[in-house]
Amino acid sequence: MRLIRRGQAAGSWNTSARVPPSARARMTLALAAGKAASSASRVLRLGGGTSFPGSVARRIDPDLLQKVAAASGARKVIITGSNGKTTTCRMLAAMAQAGGLKVTQNRSGSNLVQGVFSAAVRGTDLRGRMDAQLLLLEVDEGAVRLVTPALRPDVLVITNIFRDQLDRFGELYSMASGLAAVIESLPASATVVLNGDDPLVASLAPNAVAGRLYYGIRAAGTGAQVPEHAADTIRCVTCQSELSYRAVYLSHLGDYKCPECGSARPRLDVAVTAIQTTPDAGAEIKIEAPDGVIPLHVPLAGMHNVYNAATAIAAATALALPRPQDPERAEHAMAGLRPAFGRMEQIRAGDRHVVLSFVKNPTAYNATLREVLKRPGGKHVLAAHSNTDIDGEDFSWLWDVDLEHLVPQLASLVVSGTRAEEVALRFKYAGAQTETMRVLPSRAPALDAALSATPSGESLYILAGYTPMRELRGIMQRRGWVPPSWKE
Prior knowledge:
This protein is an alpha/beta fold. The chain has helices at residues 21-43, 52-60, 64-71, 85-98, 113-123, 144-151, 166-169, 172-184, 199-202, 303-319, 327-335, 362-373, 403-406, 420-429, 443-452, 466-478, and strands at residues 75-80, 103-105, 134-138, 155-158, 191-195, 211-217, 244-250, 253-257, 270-277, 283-289, 292-298, 343-349, 352-358, 379-384, 410-416, 437-439, 459-464. The strands form three sheets. It has a nine-stranded mixed sheet with strand order 2-3-1-4-5-6-9-10-11, sandwiched between helices. It has a six-stranded mixed sheet with strand order 12-13-17-14-15-16, sandwiched between helices. Strand 14, helix 13 and strand 15 (410-416) form a beta-alpha-beta unit.
């Protein structure tokens, strides 16, 4: 195992190479067209220019990413996995900026190939030069195999693997196989940062030449003894025997061991060793890293955000990011984080509150429900799911969501989206009364009905898949309740 220590870089701070003149003209044309498309998108209010400019630039020059990577001396980081990508990127960016680095990233969460190309367009000049020391990209786990060869990252981070959009990604081992191939393509100068608490992630590509850094939680007195019923990887990756857990922190993430073959969680290089919840629903944590103990306040609720913070610290360790000269500046950078858009985002809608949550698989949905159910009072809920190409056709995972825990606290319920009837059926079987449930497939009427059912001063909880979440937020943006996601 090769551990990156402060002062040692994973890769080089300046690996730039000149783009050949024969290729430069096409790159310049692609960048110019992409920047024009970005400006037009915003002027015409067609969006924030988070994906369309990349589509335009990629059509003109499919090799744009590779050329930008060659022309830039910035360190390059890719963060991928099922859950936690957007928030982890924001945490890592805050740490890097507190250390005095300029960061270019796809902050809005547009993480398919066109979104990555858009970030490249936005972060470079017409000659492909990047005025930043860190290029930080969250990349969809299905798209990472297309992005990695061109970008040649110094650090690749894999957060977790959960059952997610089976019709698009395939089952867990299919996704793991694809990620393993990406790791195996990395050179020895790169580092892969793996969640050691996830048995499948920890097992990826053991013979790859890239350096490895494992992170996770090792906090006494925290966690359950057995995985939740919807957990995914509960069998040994090596021999398929059922795993034994010393502690389970989230879904199947924890301190595990196979009683048959002896496979176990690897030694953690970066570990959360103490977790104390705080009145703001966040947590005070301590993280042991190779260069010492790091105290940190995580202002976002839930164990999943403790994992996000650990992931960010592990990535910073792999990058050997410079520590801020003023420690209070670093603490303030993290403490000032707000939820990324759609991640239990707090929105004022007149005299009511809206809590907008993006939920796309059982683990994300159940983690969100746990936080919602901690809040007092009856729950006014708008649940919205659609079957677009991005959201996926398969919704069998809804039956592994613990809606039975939510139903006893329901004060009102509206369901929406192109799969509204299926969502309504799932709530019915969870015990919701059909006579008090409203099924409104169109998003604007559904939002209005849900707000009307929410008394003044109370909260409406929106639980939505990706496309309905963006549509509902777009409605709220047009009403002046939230800024565009690209301005967040």
